[in-house]
Design goal:
The protein has about 180 residues and is mainly α. The chain has eight helices and no strands.
Length: about 180
């Protein structure tokens, strides 16, 4: 079993280092430094509140569901960070490129990735046609977390699953 885990960790580190080291250039740096903030607390909460205040009808309901999904999704994030105190890649892997503020909490799972997927999932359920815009945006936030040296691929995958799960759960709740 430990050989399998070791093999998986090596593959994960290979993917991380490819995204973090091999793709570095000024265009990607500007893009990922900017897009990552959409998954941060300020970006995610502001987006939800903006839609809640300006939208009406079913879009407003989807925005409220997004805000609720954002709130509940961070309970398992915080619990997981306590139960699985995984160091961030820049703390462990030599030659990790970091171009943003370094974080002190644990790596698993990615809170930014959880946030963006918890916000976009109810909106995608509300209007499936926005999938073509919102899924690439969510994936960009997830990739940005690796690009910036802050998360492993499994951190962002777990964040996606938590975000989508909380978004689906809240989409089934009628809050109006």
């Amino acid at each position: 079993m430990s050989r399998v885990i070791g093999w998986l960790h090596e593959r994960e580190c290979t993917v991380f280092q490819w995204v973090n080291n091999k793709c570095q250039d000024s265009f990607h740096s500007k893009y990922f430094v900017t897009v990552t903030h959409l998954g941060g607390a300020t970006g995610a909460i502001t987006s939800c509140l903006f839609l809640i205040l300006l939208a009406t009808g079913s879009l407003r309901l989807a925005a409220i569901q997004s805000l609720l999904a954002l709130a509940i999704s961070h309970i398992p994030v915080q619990i997981s960070k306590k139960l699985y105190p995984r160091k961030r890649p820049y703390q462990v892997l030599p030659n990790t490129v970091t171009i943003s503020k370094l974080l002190k909490d644990h790596s698993f799972p990615s809170g930014h990735t959880t946030a963006i997927f918890s916000v976009i999932t109810p909106l995608i359920i509300w209007a499936p046609m926005v999938t073509l815009l919102l899924v690439p945006l969510g994936i960009s936030v997830a990739i940005s977390r690796m690009y910036l040296g802050l998360h492993y691929p499994s951190d962002v995958l777990a964040g996606m699953l938590l975000g989508v799960g909380s978004g689906i759960l809240m989409s089934s709740v009628s809050v109006l």
